[in-house]
What we know:
The chain is mostly helical. It has helices at 3-13, 15-21, 27-51, 55-79, 86-123, and strands spanning 127-130, 134-137, 142-144.
Amino acid sequence: MPLHKAAGVFGLLLAPEMRAWRGEQPQWTVFWLYGVAATCAIAALYFDAMVSGRTALRQLLLVVLAGYTGWIVVSVWRCADNTREPLWGTLARFLTIAWAANGYWLSRFLELDLLGTLIGELTEEPRVRCGNDISIWAGGTVAIRAAHRRDRPGSPRC
């Protein structure tokens, strides 16, 4: 496929998003579908990556979330006047400011947490095994693998 045709297909796929960026979409669509629903989907992916220990995916999702937050904040702001009631537009702008501040601080704290995880993975902190149930890392983090197992003969005690 020639490059100019590929760009045309790409432009067609992203036409609604480009209209949102220009402030031409209905405010409720941009706020609820692109803003709330899509951000929740990215957050769910991040949570899954965190629980399953996929550090590289967590880093990628933080970059995606930062870029997406920038796009959605501008889009919601520009589309805020596309409502029947001016109150909803004003409320959307107010929430957009809060959203931007929350996104900024949340991404910083998640990045710090991710950095701590990465440093822990690179240094392979020594840990004390307490039977089959509990591991205690040098930094004081405790991981419990199974709850309420009975003591087994010969298992080490902590």
